[in-house]
Design a protein that fits this description.
homodimer; alpha+beta; Nucleoside Triphosphate Pyrophosphohydrolase; Arc Repressor Mutant, subunit A; 2 domains; three-stranded antiparallel β-sheet; 22% helix; DNA-binding; hydrolase activity (chains A, B); WH_DNA-bd_sf (chains A, B)
DNA sequence: CCAAAAGTGTTGTGCATACACCCATGC
DNA sequence: GCATGGGTGTATGCACAACACTTTTGG
């Protein structure tokens, strides 16, 4: 439509594709923010996330992932960070791109339009969402922002969300499960110092199953991602556990060849090792 | 700027972020298309990719990844597919989202502007690129489209590309190396039937190192991703190798929980298995 | 002493590597 | 026969799961 510089030229002899209209596709950035919380009456922690109530159509009144249009002066990652700050008032322990969702019909909901649940729109807007996921350290969780249109939900007990956000969250959790096994993101759910039992609880919350404490200890020790602070937690009714710190120096040693991949070693699913 | 329905509302009490202008950020889709080819005089195959010569500023005359703005009637994946068809005339063996690149200064090149190499622009356009990567089966490579502004290059001997495309290709190759070890993408570089030696060559081209034929055979056999067709290749000056087929049925069995992840189990980097 | 969780030791299994060796074909 | 790659057998080491066992605290 406009003649902005494009990244690549359309080739002359593209006989086989019609001249598609290049009506603006708008770009949004949303963030799946995860943190550990305890459900009422339960002893173990589980994953929770904050959702924002929509104030307009479509999906007015329903819950949705926090996000918004990409400001032209922010990078995608910065936009995700601002969203997070807006929704929680906090700084993330970890922030990483999840996926860009761009199906034509993902928004608005044509099914609901047909059924008359919501009003059909003359010119349904096409939105592509670049979704990030983030973690909040457990020590900060209590300081999250309180707002009538923001509410935290357990990740496994979500209501029906706006747009395709249920699927997006599901995908985020699925990716997290895979990622936790070969990276060190688990630490980002905890504070500076933590016990092995706490770290194990993070893994168990993410993976949804119990882990052998003995073997877990050895795996973590072998990865050399933690340092013994020498301190202990006292006041428990059992042997006092040691406090560890995350070894940032080691952590960045094998994060990949280029800085570019810092927070972008995303996705993928390590299945059986082929 | 406009008041299109947005995915999430901006919250009222967002005191800490200034009202950013929402000038349109344009959205492009590019594709890193990879295929196996033989370099002049070499016996083994290596990875090649097609590039398109830019016809306008910025970076006029330089080579760039094939791509273009996202047509409003196509999904991201469809757009990547059309790009591929335009650049090669072929259908991909595999197509998957790589990453969304969205730094503010990634385009145009302010450095080159400062140095006077290219003209400064009054209103530098902000472009976010969703990049896909694709593979072309070796059997199709000879049928690729010929065009004066399209040229194939060995992936390890690229010239300086437009924008940040060198980094993008580097990242694609890095991701491919990790991915090849736990998924079955390697097959997508070959035709329907292939020998184990050919499959091994794909792995070697991607990983950049030789593999033990004996152990490679066992790994592939253990993965049960291939079926013996019973046929053999004759005419070699040695024992005739068997021909195998890719087992599609098995392949989709463990691709993840939801269809959504079909072609999107992207990124991530399986390092030491922590 | 007892309960409970921290922390250690021991053993078996499965998988990846390394490499010796045999097989089948063209020349 | 011999060269060449296809294909098999086997030993070694390591990562990991299972689980018995010891340690250290509070009550």
């Amino acid at each position: 439509m406009t003649s902005f510089p494009q990244e690549t030229e359309k080739l002359g002899h593209s006989d086989d594709h019609h001249e598609a209209d290049h009506a603006a596709v708008s770009l949004a950035v949303s963030t799946v923010i995860l943190a550990l919380r305890r459900k009422e009456g339960e002893s173990h922690h589980s994953l929770w996330l904050p959702l924002v109530r929509r104030l307009r159509e479509p999906y007015k009144g329903q819950w949705a992932l926090p996000g918004g249009p990409l400001p032209s002066d922010q990078s995608l990652e910065q936009a995700a960070g601002s969203t997070l700050k807006r929704a929680t008032g906090l700084v993330p322990g970890y922030l990483e791109q999840l996926y860009a969702f761009g199906d034509v019909q993902r928004t608005p909901d044509y099914r609901r339009m047909r059924e008359g649940v919501i009003e059909p729109q003359v010119d349904p807007e096409r939105v592509v969402s670049v979704v990030y996921w983030a973690s909040i350290p457990a020590t900060d969780v209590s300081h999250t922002r309180v707002h009538e249109n923001i509410k935290w939900f357990p990740a496994d007990e979500l209501p029906t969300l706006a747009f395709d956000h249920n699927e997006i969250v599901e995908y985020a959790l699925y990716r997290l499960q895979n990622k936790v096994e070969y990276s060190r993101i688990a630490h980002s759910f905890l504070g500076e110092e933590f016990t092995l039992a706490q770290l194990r609880e993070v893994y168990e919350a993410i993976l949804g199953r119990a882990l052998d404490p003995a073997n877990f200890r050895r795996q973590i020790a072998a990865s050399k991602s933690i340092i013994d602070t020498g301190k202990r937690v006292e006041g428990t009714r059992h042997r006092p556990p040691r406090l560890y710190r995350y070894d940032h120096a080691r952590a960045f040693a094998d994060q990949g060849p280029l800085g570019m991949y810092r927070a972008s070693e995303t996705q993928d699913v390590a299945q059986h090792k082929f």
